[in-house]
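User: Once you have settled down, look closely at the record that follows, taking as long as you need, and be ready to discuss the fold:
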Amino acid sequence: MSSRIPILFILSLLLEVNTVYAQDKLYHLNTGLFGYYSGSGSIPFWLRSGQHGSIPLDGTSVSIITSAGKEYSGGDKLFDWGGSVEGRFDIGNKTRISLIEAYVKTKLSIFEFRAGRSKSIIGLCDTTLSAGSFSVSGNSLGVPQISISIPDYFTIPLMGNLFAFKGSFSHGWIGETTVRLINNDTADLKTYLHQKSFYGRFGKSEWKWKIYGGFNHNAFWGSEDDYYVSFNTLSKFETYLYVISGKPYGTENIPSSKIGNHLGSIDLGFEYNFNNIRMLVYRQNIYDIGALYYLANIRDGLNGVSLTNMRSSEKTIQWRKMLFEFFYTKNQAGELWSPYTPSGDENYYNNDQYVFGWSYKGIGIGNPFICKRDYTRDGLPANPRDYFINNRVAVFHYGIEGSIKDWLVFMKASYSLNYGTFGTDEVGHTLGKVRTLPLHGIFQETKQLSFLLRLNRKLRSGFLLDFAAAFDAGRLYYNSAGVMAGVTKTF
């Protein structure tokens, strides 16, 4: 950062200027200048999590963010197209350029074809206030991919329009990822991403209640010829079929297991429309290496109740949406009393083959409360083979959107109990009937509170005031507090 820019200017103003140029509602061009400050030098949890990889630098920083795009024109057009590109330039303790989003999309009837990097969340949950979906939470940058999907529920015109469904199928490019080989050496190998999902809805559109259900499946895979010494019995296409089906593969020289690193969730939901409030109750049942098949980790999952206020009001204080969630991953089928599973405890997001587990560009793809070493306090026990050092958590999460007079209010508050991994628990990791006791210390119960409050208000001539404050308090992360303040101008 140039020394000509006074530090007091950044600390006191922390300007956020956003300029929008638009010919019409379909096209947009945004250019923004953002300022951030954190007293301890570490950005608090809720200013860096769930941001689709668009994260400020630690400490004091300035960011320039530019985006441009075209949306669908709406209506019942048979064919339409759109796209978006967003870049970020950060200046602070270092300089950094990030491509946050870059994709094109086309719509043909109910189908959508998309190519590039997109912001996405996978799994049944409240996408605006959630603590984070298990599979893909919008925490990291999107993986470049091509996909075909039915993005919106399509009602089947049979059986009285009772059933509707949506789904997706995609192939992505992770790039070179560090892989631990059979002989415990490591190598950077070309890696791909497979993702698919299918969700159904039961209930007519005019009914007060509806039932939801579905699943998503995600996998890292690729370079099996380099990983296994004698992987020569399957063609590339046959290998791909094993990946998308999740079918185990093995030979005399290769132990039977799924090809690649697989995880996902099986989701259930119930919606009910009261007179002025819409309620959505949901549950994500999570799987990583197979314990859910035996219901051995059925205690784990994401549970949520989302309430949306459907009444328009001129009251001084009103709420628009409220969310209560409980995210639990402490069981993992690894307790002494857990049912036997051939694959042992789940060890969520960690993988013995993929050194950096379920992450992309150094950031976890899934729920951010399952965390790696970054930002955690020094001295917390960790198994060196585990990239995510804390995946056994119990999180109580609350979120609210509302307004106070002309101010829009957004708040998240999360209280978590953290237990490390089974590699740092007294009972140790399991694989089948073999239990390996911890060698790197015991991770004691660690409590953590993370909070975010954001307010903004429209002014005359297209100006918008924007304020945010967040803090972390506890023994998992270093105590920190950060603020953002800004003025936005829209042309």
Remarks:
- The two ends are 28 Å apart (CA to CA).
- The CA atoms of residues 78 and 109 lie 5 Å apart.
- The helical segments are 7-13, 45-48, 224-227, 236-245.
